[in-house]
Amino acid sequence: MLLTQLAVAGIQTGMLYALTAAGFALIFGATRVFHVAHGATFILAGYAFLEAMQMGAHWAIASLVALTVAVAFGLFMDMLVYRPIQKHEGSFFTVFVASFGAGIAMQALIQFFFGGGFATISLPLTRATELLPGLYIAPVFWVALAVVLLVFAAITLFLERTHAGLGLRALSENPELLRAYGLSARRLSALAFVLGSALAVPGAILTTVTTGIQPADGAHVMLVSLAATVVGGIGSIRGAALAGLVLGLVENLVVSVVDTQWSQAASFVMLFGFILFRPNGLMGRAGAR
Amino acid sequence: MLTRRTVLAGMLASTAFPAALRAATEPYVLGTLFPMTGLLSELGSIYTAATALGLEHVAQDKRLSQPIVLKAQDSQSTPQGGAVGMSKLANVDRAPYVLVGLTGVAKAAEPIATRAKVVMVNGGGVGPDLAGLSPYFWNIIPLANQELPTAFSWMKRNEIRRVALIYLDDPLGNALRKGLQDGLPAIGAALVGEFSAAPSAQQFSAMIAKIRETKPDLVYVASYGTQQTQIFKQLRDNGITQPLMTYSVGGTPSVAALPESEGLLFTSQVADWDAKDPLTRRFVEGWRARHKDNPNTYAQNYYNAVLLYAQLIERLEKEGKPLNGDTLREGLATGTFDLVGGRARFSPSGAIDMPTQLNRVQNGKFEKVS
């Protein structure tokens, strides 16, 4: 039963990783901006949800507040940080450093306003009950499962069945051709940031209620997103989501054979394995930019 | 007649006089190396508030010829930050007496302080290896190994036989692990599982699944900071209903504020906020007036550390001795001091001798169990 329990824990962790990584992969895939501040988006959404709940808001309103804050931050980064840099110089490294700096600045601001400590909210949803002998599952597991399925179904439909979704995919393929067809790369880039930032929100809310958050968590979120993007195949949202799930599973299942403190290291061993033996990742294409 | 000798004497006097004057008029420097940012910034706020209260009371007493000024450095909750901060305090601020907290930070800062002959007073770190760290290193807090006997007494009385341990893989966590390994057999109990956590770990559900398999009577947590509260929350969320126990770090406000901490047991030095002695009353009332709550033992320790500095300076002024690391060290080794909690003296290894007690989190407050 231990393995089943570890698998359940792994799926729950993996679902949260999948949502966060998919957001990062969508932004990177469409705009080629290495949005390191995606970690800050996640933390901002978590704190916004928490603050709204503590002010007595209904969870749906609090979720909406978190969504608004995350999307606003994503748009802010796109319009006021990345775009001016890209206009003048546009080097990948300059944009990366700007994003990294913005992430750190945002972490400091959150710490200034909310303190550096751990923040969470206690809900009955997170209390596990014994479903079978030795198998404990909290109601939040089913909530996470439903949210993940719903969000991925919606994002897949959007990307595959709408003009804007097709435009986003085209943006990652050939921005020049996009302009030739009269589509606005700027608007599509903003859309990528809106969707990518919004994808971080469910993971941020679920993390806030299950494990709690702190301002310094942004770095961990970013590491996981990056690992999932590489393992999944750069540019592939499905790949990143699948890789996030696999990373969560590996991180938890490995505890059955190694000491508990090495669980996170196992994920990154897997990352190195992919870089060495399958550099295109699970769903990446050979020769992708 | 103006001779060459007179001119030389005059020049020497003119250079020496301002220095002597400066020495007599310069304020005394108190350095702090607290975690103001990083994982343990919550503790840094408590340490700073207690130090400020102590300085305010010392200033009100007007028993020193010069005021004490505070020079603060942020250790960032990391050993690296501790080393950098101590370099600044010793070499730039020239602080002869520095308050530190956190085991890792204190150990990183200690060689720099010892080289510069700066006295360090620790009121927050409880790693047993902080005892006898250096002739200039003094502990005004009982170390973790001094707390364990109180935990063992309670376990024995409550027939705890199987203990599972979650520990941070660092000097403090490993010291508590060793203390439990050595001490549990003596009360007829055993460590049935030892689970190490990486300092950056935040997800503990897999570890908790393994803990459940060991069927413990009690889970002992040897971590600190935000990670500790995350562990308490996840233990309860993941179906662990057995008693949870930790060391003095359990007495932080964020632990009490967490609903999942209800019933948590933790050891600490004896703290009686209802004691009638004037020192305790002044400290407790001052703290309550500022923070609308009772203090905790960390606040007591850093308040005491400021009183200790003031008492040492007062003695040196009376004896006409200079204030430096060596004279402070001599004073600490030989004196007895009036502090909150009673009259105290230090052992030759630099540890304060204080009794300990077991506490419990009850309705979001701390209460004494035994």
UniProtKB/TrEMBL annotation, chain A:
Quote the protein name from its UniProt record: Branched-chain amino acid ABC transporter permease
Q: Recall the GO molecular function terms of this protein's record.
A: transmembrane transporter activity
UniProt cross-references to InterPro entries, sorted A to Z: ABC_transp_permease, BCAA_transport_permease
Which superkingdom heads the taxonomic lineage of this protein's source?
Bacteria
Give a single Pfam family match: BPD_transp_2
What transmembrane ranges does the database entry give?
Answer: 6-26, 33-50, 56-80, 92-114, 134-159, 188-209, 221-250, 262-279
CDD domains recorded for this chain?
TM_PBP1_LivH_like (cd06582)
Write out the annotated subcellular location. Cell membrane
Family statement drawn from the similarity comment of this UniProt entry: Belongs to the binding-protein-dependent transport system permease family. LivHM subfamily.
Q: Which GO terms describe its cellular component?
A: plasma membrane
Biological process annotations from GO:
amino acid transport
Q: Is Membrane one of the keywords UniProt gives this record?
A: yes
Report membrane topology.
Multi-pass membrane protein
